[in-house]
Amino acid sequence: MNNYRIGLWIGVALVALASLAPLGLNDYQQSFLLQVFLVIALAQAWNLISGMTGYVSFGHAAFFGVGAYASALLLTWGFPWWLAVLKSAGIAALLAVPLGFLTLRLRGPYFAIAMLGLNEVGRIVATLWVSVTHGGTGLTLSPELLPSLDVKYFTMFGLALGATLLVAWIHRSRFGLELRAIREDEEAAEMVGVNTTLNKVIAFVLSALIPGAVGAVYVMYTSYINPSSAFEHARNIEMIVVVLFGGSGTVWGPIIGAGTVMVLREMLWAQFPAAHLAALGVLLLVVVLYLPGGLVSILRDRQRSRPDARSGESP
Amino acid sequence: MSAPVCDPDHILCAWGLTRDFGGVQALRGVDLHVARGSITGLIGPNGSGKTTLFQVISGLDRGATGAVTFDRESILGWRPSQIYRRGLARTFQLSRVFPELTVLENIVVAGSRHDRSVTERALGLLERVNLRDYAAVLGKNLSYGQQKLVEFLRVLMSDPALILLDEPAAGVNPTLRQTLWDMVRHLNGLGATFLVIEHNMEVIADLCSEVYVLSEGEIIAHGDFAAIRNDERVLEAYFGKSRRHGAA
Fold first, then answer.
1. Calpha distance B169→B180 (Å, rounded)
2. Closest partner CB to A312 (pick from B58, B110, B136)
3. pLDDT digits (tens, 9 = 90+) for B88-138
4. Does B60 contact A310 at a Cβ distance shorter than 8 Å?
5. Which one of B56, B60, B81 makes the best mutation probe of the A interface by having the most chain A beta carbons within 10 Å?
6. What residues of B are in contact with residue A174 (Cβ under 8 Å)?
7. Is position B3 within any domain?
8. Which range of residues forms the domain containing residue A179?
9. Which of A69, A5, A92, A87 is nearest to A225 (CA)?
10. B49: CATH
11. Which of A244, A44, A262, A36 is nearest to A162 (CA)?
12. Which chain A residue shows the shortest CA-CA distance from B120?
């Protein structure tokens, strides 16, 4: 059985487990899993633009924040929860079209800083636009507007699964190959016929759509949103850490990274409440220094070292 | 401003190409006409502007003034990907394979999105240069010579009418070099046109029907190799006045 089939079966098993989990879990455990799915979906979104094209974004939480606010307002205005999720994702994606054309002209640290600035702009707009967002006070959603925990759990699970399948499909597609060529050498990619601008913008829009939807479900989960929690910089860091931990530019990296980081964080938080973030930071440093390809690279290197690995044909 | 009309016998024409880098003129009114179906050489001392000329023609440098037509269509200001799809491809002076893509992916990515047999075509090209067994190897794990060869195969995926080769044999071992030149001759026999930057004068003399000599951003001579090898301006550009006078 080749790696693709093994991955497929592991994926099916995980989906089955996650689908049945609410039957045997208490609310705390279900909420924890919901947060793992949230991180997986966000990490896959970041992976799509930064892992595949090499354009490292430090501000994807901006789209999460836009989705969260859009959802909160739509729910308040009487829209059903599912339509609020769809519309919020659409708004984040629409916003990403002009932003993509503008920011993706920049490269390396300039793009990263521009995205960081975008997140700050989002936070400031949410703070100052008091008539709509209630400023720093934030928006509180009444419970009758919100779906049940099971619905939120399965919606977040669906987003994580959808984001993963999207990344898996792109990874195996011609589009994904072109994105990886851009990551390797953008000029050379352009020189062999890859329309680098269009490819990057499409990847950017898709990578904004996912956080838009995730933010929309998140606000239903917390029933409250304010500028700090919507445009939280720690969320940007979390996306990056999870992907680097698991393996950038891969399908399984964000899943392995999210699972490991979330479980470790929970365990370290219980053991060392004052220093759990520092401990996590040290662990990340070790992974980045000694496993630059992330945890998934251990499996990949084992596969590549097999004698028959050189004769593979599929791109 | 519309470009001047290019003779139908010429696949590539450039008129008055000028490229200025903050006061340093890398190209000064370059005129160049590449005959359809030819192998044309472009030579000149280091820093004479040869690679800059390739950058401008291939669309990677869009800051030049003047006019360039390819197959009678003005291409100055086009994106490199548009120019490539139109049928003009190029290689780089230093190998630029995609290091984390496999050899096969490196070549497939240069093929058409609509070509269903793109993988078979890429494998066929690898077979021709005995690199078929390396299809699944990452680009970064090839030798430098193999990387240059893969880069050359990559540009063949679009069946280009004109290929610009920027020192394709530099750093390549003699066996692979021979393979490369044999392929150039073979493809030229099938109708492809080449514009080649090369420092090895034996290769230029052997391959090229016409040679352009660039010095300090200007075309100082052009014609067949026999004519330019004794041209005074060419000798001066390569060896300097004192050497010429000393030799006389």
1. 8
2. B136
3. 999 999 999 999 999 999 999 999 888 889 999 999 999 998 999 999 999
4. no
5. B81
6. 113
7. no
8. 25-232
9. A69
10. 3.40.50.300
11. A44
12. A313
Q: Which of A174, A183, A193 sits opposite B81 (nearest CB)?
A: A193
- Angstrom distance (rounded) from CA A189 to CA A198: 13
Number of domains in chain B: 1
Question: How are beta strands B193-197 and B39-43 bridged, if at all?
Answer: parallel
Residue B153 lies in a domain: yes
Give the chain B residue nearest A193 (alpha carbons).
Answer: B81
Q: Is residue B147 part of a domain?
A: yes
Range of the domain at B110: 10-247
Ranges of H-type helices in chain A: 3-24, 27-46, 52-53, 61-76, 81-103, 108-128, 130-133, 149-172, 174-184, 186-191, 196-222, 227-230, 233-246, 253-271, 276-290, 296-304
Asked whether the beta carbons of residue B81 and residue A312 sit closer than 8 angstroms, the reply is no
The pLDDT score that the predictor gives to residue A191 is 95
Domain-located, residue B31:
yes
- Residue A311's pLDDT band (boundaries 50, 70, 90)? very low
Please check whether residue B126 touches A, CB under 8 A: no
Measured CA to CA, the distance from residue A40 to residue A254 in angstroms comes to: 6
Structural domains of chain A, count: 1
